Amino acid sequence: MTPSTGKLVSEIMVPFYKHPVAVNAGLLGVLIVVLAIVGSSNAVNLTDGLDGLAIGCTLIVGFVFLVFTYVAGNFRAAVYLQFRTCPARAS
């Protein structure tokens, strides 16, 4: 509903591809967001019941977040992959 964040759901992006795959796809974007939330919730619930195997999934996700944090902090990689950079560093 907010114009500044409306593109976050209405533009479908593929990781490591610079341009949106679909533009103005609000309904498809909402469907993908709902499926991602429900899927992650169910995945954690299923693996948690298997004798603590959820920590493996948690470590994998934590490592991916670590990589994303590094890439966002590396100016050249962030500009190439079009990550948001700090305005102070953009000059």
Can you give a write-up of this model?
The structure is a single chain. The two termini are 32 Å apart. The chain is 58% helix and 0% strand. The protein is built from four helices and no strands. The protein is mostly helical and 91 residues long. The model has no long low-confidence stretch (mean pLDDT 77). It folds into two domains: 1-48, no CATH class; 51-91, no CATH class. The protein has helices at 7-10, 26-48, 54-73, 75-80. The chain is flat.
Radius of gyration: 17 Å
Cα separation of the termini:
32 Å
The residue ranges in which pLDDT falls below 50 over 5 or more consecutive positions are: none
Q: Please work out how many helical segments DSSP would assign.
A: 4
Structural class: mainly alpha
Strand content: under 5%
Per DSSP E runs of 2 or more residues, the count of β-strands stands at 0
Please, what is the average pLDDT? Answer: 77
> Can you tell me the overall shape?
flat
Tell me the domain tally: 2
Helix content: 55-70%
Order of helices and strands: HHHH
Write the layout of secondary structure elements.
Elements lengths: L6 H4 L15 H23 L5 H20 L1 H6 L11
Provide a short characterization of the protein structure.
The protein is 58% helix and 0% strand. With 91 residues, it is mainly α. It folds into 2 domains: 48 residues, no CATH class; 41 residues, no CATH class.
From the structure above, extract its key features.
mainly alpha; flat; 91 residues
